[in-house]
Design brief:
globular
Length: 225
């Protein structure tokens, strides 16, 4: 893989948080931003807005249909395995747009990026140490807790004929995508952290901070070279 263009030298040194849906990535990154004066980058926000425009432009350039598949096709007509495979196949191109966003930042302080599309196999070749990244995954019990208590996790925001089937497909897809992230992280030596909710958001953020290789202002970890 060719070395990524890093005009400010910041991409290779910044902390990255990837992993599963509903593991607390956004909350942890926000707490780290406040604690250490980092600039937060939230993948889902950009992916659903500016990157959507890029997806449409790409489809136009390729002569593909502009519109997304309808909700039935998206959530009920395909099995979770097909849905997960499509999601994973799309991450590399979407990551290139993330890098474009981050290259535009020159704030004089580090950024922390979080999102499920920040995959270990994409981030690891970019950073100067695999300890710049942490992959967060919920335990199964904590995943069920999130599905019960977070409205956006517990139900889709689109109308389909069989909402229970669509939600089951979504949960199974997310589990498959998370398992792929864990396999990739372990293969590359990227730290994986299971989140069970017992430490609360602040405790989880403190553990994540300890996992990272140092960035300016970060806490020192005992024995870190």
């Amino acid at each position: 893989m060719a070395e990524a263009w890093d005009p400010h030298g910041s991409l290779r040194r910044m902390p990255w948080i990837g992993g599963a849906q509903w593991a607390g990535k956004t909350t942890v990154s926000e707490l780290l931003s406040l604690e250490y004066g980092l600039t937060g980058y939230h993948y889902d926000f950009h992916d659903a807005r500016g990157h959507r425009d890029r997806r449409i432009a790409r489809r136009v350039a390729r002569g593909e249909p502009v519109a997304d598949p309808g909700p039935e096709r998206m959530w009920t007509e395909r099995g979770p395995e097909e849905m997960a495979a499509e999601t994973l196949a799309g991450f590399p191109e979407r990551f290139a747009w993330v890098l474009d966003d981050l290259r535009a930042l020159s704030t004089g302080r580090a950024a922390v990026a979080e999102g499920w599309g920040l995959r270990p196999e994409l981030v690891a070749p970019l950073v100067d140490s695999v300890r710049r990244m942490v992959v967060l995954v919920p335990t199964e019990e904590f995943r069920r807790h999130q599905l019960r208590t977070l409205p956006r996790a517990g139900a889709l925001d689109v109308a389909v004929r069989d909402p229970a089937r669509a939600q089951a497909h979504r949960i199974a897809r997310d589990r498959l995508v998370a398992e792929d992230a864990v396999r990739g992280a372990r293969r590359l030596g990227v730290p994986v952290m299971e989140v069970d909710g017992s430490r609360g958001a602040a405790g989880a953020a403190a553990l994540v901070a300890e996992q990272f290789a140092p960035w300016p202002g970060a806490p020192e970890r005992a024995g870190r070279g």
